[in-house]
Amino acid sequence: MKIYDWHTGPYPARVRIALAEKNLQPLVTFISVNLWKGEHKTPEFLAKNYSGTLPVLELEDGSFIAECTAITEYLDALDGLPTLTGRTPREKGMIHMMSKRAELELLDAISVYFHHGTPGLGPDVEIYQNPEWGFRQRDKAIRGMHYFNDVLEKQPFVAGDVFSMADITTIGGLIFAERVDVPVPQECGALRAWYARMQERPSVRNRVTMSKLTEEA
Fold first, then answer.
1. Which residue, 32, 91, 168, 185, is most buried by CB atoms nearer than 10 A?
2. What would the pLDDT profile of 3-19 be if each residue is shown by its tens digit?
3. Is the full-model pTM beyond 0.85?
4. Which residues are CB-neighbours of 44 under 8 A, at least 6 positions away?
5. Is it true that domain 89-202 has CATH number 1.20.1050.10?
6. Cis check: omega of the bond before 55, within 30 degrees of 0
7. Strand pairing partners for 56?
8. Residue 208 pLDDT
9. How are the residues of the chain apportioned to helix, strand and coil, as percentages rounded to the nearest 5?
10. Among the listed residues 155, 129, 139, 14, the one whose alpha carbon sits nearest the alpha carbon of residue 76
């Protein structure tokens, strides 16, 4: 398998963490697509992923799977022992619900702020920017942090009692927030403590230094 990504990207981090949790890194070759040079918007890359986003998984038969949730679903099912996307119908429902909330309320909101409320990837890549919309989304992300703080005051992980895809998505959001200087509010003690615990997981700590990283594309 090949994964097209950018080694410090917050969305690619989600898949890298999932790979590490499943111990699947030896099966994957990473191919670097430089976001800062706009390589994800070239015709060659758009032929792999119409959306022009990272990461993208290429299978041995030449087919491509994009979108972090879809890639994680695929990886989690490879060994028939899903640990990240849920085992029971209830687990699956809760994990997918909370992962989607983490995308909408935190990760995607921070992404919009990055692309519209900051210089983003630079003038050669950012064709259109709406700063007002960017700052609105930054504020939405901060509200999302308060929401997840409330959740984590009641349970050890985002979707319940076990680490899951929902935690990975939330981690991705906080990684992105750090990059754009949107800190977790001091009053969100439960979220801050949870994130400190998550950073001690080997899958999170070592996400940038995975094996078989190549500098292609």
1. 168
2. 999 999 999 999 999 99
3. yes
4. none
5. yes
6. yes
7. 4, 66
8. 64
9. 55, 10, 40
10. 14
